[in-house]
Every structure is written in C-alpha cells, then in structure tokens.
Amino acid sequence: MVxxxxxxxxxxxxxxDDVLRHTKDWKSHLQMLRDFFERVRRANxxxxxxxxxxxxxxxxxxxxxxxxxxxxPQAENVGKILNAERPKTNMDCRSLLGMVNFYRRYIxxxxxxxxxxxxxxxxxxxxxxxxxxxxxxxxxxxxxxxSSEPILKLPDLTxxxxxxSLWN
Length: 168
Known about the structure:
alpha+beta
C-alpha cells in the first residue's frame, strides 16, 4: 500500500510502512511534505503524530544516520565494530563479518578487504581460527574505513546542471 501511495513521487522512499526523505534545504523539504500529505489525504489514510519525525537535521533509521548531505552508519553500531575483540573462533568471525556486511555499501572493495577473514569461515575451516597478519590488516582496515569521514555524500546537482548547459 505504501509503495502504491508513493508511486510517481520524487525523492520519497519507504521501508515497510515507514516513509523517508531527506532534502538539502527547508524549501524543498516543505514542497516534498506538501506532496506527501496530499497523497495521504487522497488515499484517506491517517498518520500518527507520535510516529512522525519532521524537520529534523539528523535521523537514525534502520542502523543508518541520515543528515542534510550525509548518509552513514549509525555511530552506535560502528562503535560495536570498533570495540569488537579479535575473533578467536569460526563463529566469532561470522559474527564480525555479519556486522561488517551490514555496512558494506560504505566500504569500497569490502569483499576484497575482508576476504582473509571470510576464508576463516569456510566449511572445512578449523573451529579455532589461526589469526594472521592478513586478517589483522583487514580487521584494522575495516575499522579505519568505517570511522573515516565522509561515508556517503549526496551528489552536488549544481555540477550536473552546469554540464547540462554545455550540452544544450
């Protein structure tokens, strides 16, 4: 139903029954809200004010932090990875990889970086892992990359518009 409600809407996304949008400025935010509220009214739906967050500079959503021109992993979850102990068992490696894989979209070449740790989880791997230099490097590199800024930034559309004028 939410997908149908948002069909054709610009820059509105949803996850189950949550609708999410971040804008660069207040004017475009108000325009987007007007469009959204009109859609809700036409569909004869109601919104529960206690479940709405409107006009916030920062929103944490499903483990991600969304700001004006930034999308990144939620600091609390990155802290868990940064404070993770070096894995000792196959299961510890799987747990670490699960946390890292949740944020792989923020890490360029993530699969290559974590490959030495992934190798420790293969079906015939020993239960107690043999942690070597390559795993230590991958462990530290992931921590470094997840704690470095910027993670993701929204594109600067003014640059794209400048290129459009060259072609027109």
